[in-house]
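Q: What does the assembled structure look like for these inputs?
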Amino acid sequence: MIDTFLCAAKRALFYIPIVAIAFSCSDKGGTADEDDSEKEAQMSAIVEQYVDKTVVTTYRSLADESIILYDALLALKANKTAANVEAAANSWVKARDYWELSEAFLFGAASDFGIDPHIDTWPLAKDELVAELANDAHIASMSGEAGDVWVADFLGYALLGFHGIEYILFENGQPKAAGSISDKELIYAAAVAGDLRNQCFRLEAAWAGIDNVSSEKKAKIEELDMIVTTSSGKLSYGADMKQAGKAGSTKMSVLDACETILEGCITIADEVGAMKIGMPYTGEDVNYIESPYSFNSKADFIGNIISIQNAYLGGVDKGARDASVSAYIKRVDSATDAAVIAAIDKALAAINAIPYPFAQHFTSNEAGAAMDACNDLTEVLTGAKNVLNK
Amino acid sequence: MIKMTVRQLAEILCAMSFLLCIAIACSEGSDPDPIAEEDLSEEYYTGGKLGTAFNATSFAYEQPTPVVEADADMMVRFKIGEGFFENEFTTNASGIRSGLGPVSVRSSCLTCHPGYGHGKRMERYRAKDYGNGYLLVVIDQNDNYVPQLTGMPQTQAVPPFLPPIDESGIHIEWKNHTDQYGNIFPDGESYSLIYPEVTIDREAINVPMPDFYKVRLEATIGLYGTGLIDAIPDDSLIAQYELEKARGFTLNDAKYRPENFIKEVDGTSHPGRYTYGLSRGTLQNGPGANAIWNITNVTRSDRRYHYITAAYATAMSQNADIQAALGQTEQEIYSYLMSRELPAEMSDKDYTDLMVWHRGLAVPAARNLDDPAVKRGKEKFYEMGCIACHRPSWTTGADDYSGDPMVKGHLPRYPHQKIWPYTDLLQHRLEMVNNIRTGWCRTMPLWGRGLSEKCTGAGEHLHDMRARNYNEAIMWHGGDAQFAKEKYRTLSKTDREAVVKFLESI
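A:
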């Protein structure tokens, strides 16, 4: 019934901006225009803050960590010690966390360039990996200086990205013993980590703009001839959001940009509740559990919800948060804003309460409660999106 | 009954908020703009009340219809089905989305339908390049498919098998084209046109080939709203054919002879309505229902065989390296590849969920229809006669969908909806250089295309994505659409831009 109501409400609210434009009476006092102008200014500030302090900040951290991960795998490949395994495993967890913290903004570069499937396809094609490790010619290509480029060109997404590296480094939630990892596995993992790094560079550059990344990142992107702008407007994705409503931007208005911010949040809240937790919990598909080698699933879920929190509250750094969707909604409908904040907190608490590891407790009552909390979050975020139109 | 009551209540409350908005926005004495009277016009509901999603963000193509949203169980099925569309199939022997191969066109649906839309214009052909929605069309002098290859040839294989075509031997060259007007409008504005020239090296093809073959590209199109198209009655398609025939159009008459209708496993037969070639008559045996099998070669209970040719099976089974790698005889390899009794790799339930998702995808609502430039563009679009082929609206029937008993009774339905796809669902000839196979091409639906770049990262048009924007797409129209193009040429720049703005809004 609530679905039905929301459905009808969404439909009606879609029109309100159109009607507001049609009935704005600029020649008779301008109140509506002033309101529109004020609303636009507020929303522009939200978008600026979102791009610079949530999206770019997160992708920069991800790209920086991806360098560390790649270097750690090179060190491990050169010297197979327990300390080097641990360093690589720790970096994998950190990089993974930054990636999960970005999943409330999978639209734009992550989607348009297919970077999401490129670096985060699950499950791993394990049978194929066995065949690749036995293929000496392929291993020779991976071990070369351009191994990162070779894997991107010749391996499928189900052999690339986080889960391929995870499989080599972890077992039953722990870093593997150094001696149990073969040389060929490390050649593969290092090449895949190089490609992962390249893709993370692309994410950061695509949002920040190619001239706003480090010289190391810029050089790699140029070497690989990576496109880092929108198709027709040739804007960075950050500029595309910030210039909403102007020529060249794919966003029709700042309202459109703000709706997209929330739509990104809604999509990942739904994904965590209905799919990542819901599929195994309900028994629909127990194979759905991601990051099973490292037992990182819970951290993945938490990262996703914090990603929503950062997007909604206006930045990764709690001390530097400014204009936000939250603040805007609070001014229009404080109850809805409070409901979103509470639903985020509740989802985080519910996920935290799932016994570790999720891979062994996905049928627990706590997992069911976490699924419900995430589904509730999806619903209140949908309501918040409607408030943006007011 | 309770649901209906709540829905009605919601509609009333929303209507009240709508009225309130009007009251607030307008100061005393202002005349209501007549545009507002049309605000809730049916044209905004591109997919009808039951099939339209009011979401114009980057996620616009991914939305469930109101029918799906209103049914909690169907919503779960929709999400599970979506997972099969979005994620990679693997060559794993077991587990989720396993069974890819032994040869495949792609590993995932999303690769060809980025952001749930159409494929992107590509500079090269690689099956794994994200957004590459191209299918290779390898044909002889008479535009018949070369029988040694499947209609959609594969370029990926699970070792030790070889792909029918090795991608390294595929070449796409984009050539400039100058049209009869020298690529210049009468007002002096110029445009550029490009088209693909595709070749495949003979040595890159792992089956014996005839002396002559040529290659064309056909790109995927978006998936949203295909369920609504399925709900249009066959009689309406035939009536449209007869109407245009009476108007003097040259049409592909053979398609409308009952003996040529597409026969389905449930005993029904239908005129074609899907694909450029009008080769599919129902969604339930449509491009998607088949693609999940023939693109991946993931078998299911009603497709317990591979999508390959006998020529390929012969070539592979006779290959000594493959025999040695598999430790099997020629006959054993051939029998495996050509078997009609392979185990099903995708369950009936999973397949049905995929079809719930497929039939459950909503069309994005139209936008900005009350904008003066959009209205002007619409006026010109109608005046120029574009609607002769890009028929604006259709009305669905009872939507007692058919085609496949396996999914019957499980899918969302859209009875008696007025929908706005802007296509006559017939084939016409546009007579362009390196034309589509046979020259006959189904009129492309225009709904939702204005959101393409936002949703997919690319906004090209036509069967091989040669047109980089609406303007180029219009200027590629020849043949049956020459008359409309000529009218477009003579419009002022402002009016041409208005036409494009209209197209972007529907």
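Residues 1-9, 15-30 of chain A have pLDDT under 50 and may be disordered.
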